[in-house]
Amino acid sequence: MSIRAEDIRFSYGDHDVLKGVSFEAQPGEFLSVLGPNGVGKSTLFRCLLGLLKPSAGRTLIDGRDTAQMSAAEMAHRIAYIPQSHAPVFNYTVEDMVLMGTTAGLGRFSSPGRAQRKLVGEVMEWLGIKDLADSGYQNISGGQRQMVLIARALAQQARILIMDEPSSSLDLGNRIRVMKTVKRLTGEGYTVIQSTHDPDQAFFYSDRILAMKDGQVLACGPAKDIVKDTIISELYGAEVEVYSLREDTVRVTLPAETHGHSKEE
Length: 264
Description:
This protein is of the alpha/beta class and 264 residues long. The protein has 9 helices and 13 strands.
């Protein structure tokens, strides 16, 4: 499924948060929304998900205005994956993933054999089937994030919105989670993540949407966005971007050259 934002605007009282944000993401694409804290990334996501109503603009999924969709229709098309968190109750991992299937059930229905079969298949595909009976509060942060991804897949939506999915994880878990997310695009999922890490955005993204002050500063292929001028303006700090390999860069302070070839 494709998703398109057209001139999205939103304000909290007199404070303009989004000032005409437009972009499009296609099936199988990984789009990173890059920018410092407070630029409107989370507000944009809430508008895309239908949790906030923009003051102007619209969101289209496969060409259809989401304002004309019911909550159930939206749930079949778009899923939200938050940062790893600990719920009040220590649900089992299987129950956490099973919650994703409720979007397709009636008001007074509960998950049955078909939903449990789907959950088992999703967990096995993500490599967390052995955690089924574990308490969600008792597993690692990386495993929790994988459970939240599984819950979104159980929802059977094809567009995944992820709010800084690896920001609270250590390096190993960050790599495992991001590799899994990248693998989803190979299965045709449309993935949009928010991040403030230019290096990560460059390595995993097909395209990057750079946001500053509630507006689109730049949007395009990752190699065209992670540049000295754009990153320096985006974060209000002079930086230099160096190429480590064809698919990897490092954003550093100007004095930290380290002998790497500079990304022109």
